[in-house]
Structure formats: C-alpha cells, structure tokens
Specification:
The chain is globular, with a radius of gyration of 18 Å. α9 runs antiparallel to α10. By secondary structure, it is of the alpha/beta class. A five-stranded parallel beta sheet has the order 3-2-1-4-5.
Length: 229
C-alpha cells in the first residue's frame, strides 16, 4: 500500500519513535505535499524535524513539490482538489487539505490522518461513495499490522499506549476496535471499498479474524487490570 500523510499523524508516530510502522505497512511509498514539510511540520514538529528530514533524505518519505506535479501534468487537478477540500473541511488545518488532495490527485490508495471528528476528512471519506481514497487513523494502522501477523497482540497494545501517551491523545483502544470491526466487518459497512480491502487482506494472509480480536481484547483487558491494581 501507498499512503499520503497528514501533519499530525507524522508527528504522533515520530514523537513515539514508531515511524518505522508507517514504512512497514505502506511499503509501496509514503508521500506528503511540500507545504506540509515547509509550513506545517516546520511550525509544529520541533526537534522531530531533523529526524523527519533524515528519512526524507533516505527516500522513506517522498515529497511532491509543485514542480513535480507540473512535470506530471497534474498540478491543475491538485489545485482543484485543494480548492474543493478547503470548501469541505475549511482552511483551519491545511495539512489535512493537502494530504487528502494529494491522495486524490496521484491515485494514492490510503490517507492516514488522526482528524476523526464528524465532518473531517476521515469520517467524510468513509461516507463519500465516489471517492476511492481509504482513510486510516493510527489505531487502524496498528490493527492492520497485527492482523497480517507482523507483530503479536502484546506489541500492538504496547505500541498503542506509547503513541497515545507520547502525544497525549487520550484515546481508548477498545472503542476503536469496535469501530474497526463495524467499519470493515459489519453488515452496515460504510463503503464497499472497505469490505473489499479487508477481504483481500484476510484471504492473502489467511487471517483468523475472530481469534485475532479475541487475543487482542484479552491483552487489553490484562493491561487494564494491571493498571488498576
């Protein structure tokens, strides 16, 4: 898979030193628009910027500049997407607008963002029937990595806690599991692209879905007990 990243998701993974998860899951490429690096990350990444720039230098993160978009003959399409997305989501966080516009323009399959508020890119893309971009938040990425057998349940819970704590997100794992199951396996799934995506994943990796989630929930429960003890 290839992914276009929003500003905050980059910061969350790098702040917890878990950025390699992104490169592992999105092995076909991780891309950002140049303004995310020049403006958004410059203003918000702080000391992380040196580490992010090192990965850009190594080619782990590919920057799409205006020049590159013009070379590809898609700059006008990108500009139109930016204009449309600004109308949809507002210009409060241009990182989100740039990330989704780039994904739509270059045909990237995935958008990774932690803006899950109603009306934001994540929820909107779940509901827009005509858009092929599939949104993921950081918990979705961790669950997918677990399902395909890259790590076990304990490592998944540990990584969730480290990312959650490092950025003071105050998320809870269990409700996000419920949302994941409803979205990808529920009878009222948002989009057929989601069910097609997860079916291919299950078939490719021969995933025992029920037992996988039982194990994940068992570890979460054990962790909660140890915290309250």
């Amino acid at each position: 898979m290839k992914a276009s990243l929003d500003t905050n998701i980059i910061i969350h993974f790098y702040r917890a030193n878990k950025q390699d998860i992104l490169f592992e899951i999105f092995s076909e490429g991780v891309v950002i628009y140049e303004q995310i690096r020049k403006v958004e990350l410059q203003n918000h990444a702080g000391m992380l910027l040196k580490i992010i720039d090192a990965d850009i230098e190594k080619g782990k993160i590919v920057i799409y500049t205006d020049f590159k978009l013009k070379e590809l003959g898609i700059k006008k399409i990108f500009d139109e997407n930016v204009k449309d997305n600004k109308m949809l989501y507002g210009a409060g966080d241009m990182g989100e607008v740039y990330a989704i516009s780039l994904a739509q323009t270059i045909g990237v399959y995935s958008l990774v963002t932690d803006d899950i508020k109603q009306g934001g890119p994540y929820m909107s893309l779940l509901q827009l029937k005509y858009d092929d971009v599939i949104p993921f938040n950081f918990v979705d990425v961790l669950i997918i990595r677990f399902l395909i057998g890259k790590v076990d349940a304990q490592k998944t819970v540990d990584d969730f806690n480290e990312i959650n704590d490092a950025s003071s997100l105050n998320w809870n794992f269990e409700p996000n599991i419920k949302k994941f199951l409803k979205r990808f396996f529920g009878n009222d799934a948002y989009k057929k692209e989601d069910t097609e995506f997860i079916k291919k994943l299950v078939d490719k990796y021969q995933i025992e879905v029920k037992s996988k989630f039982q194990e994940l929930r068992r570890i979460i429960k054990e962790h909660s007990k140890s915290e309250s003890a």
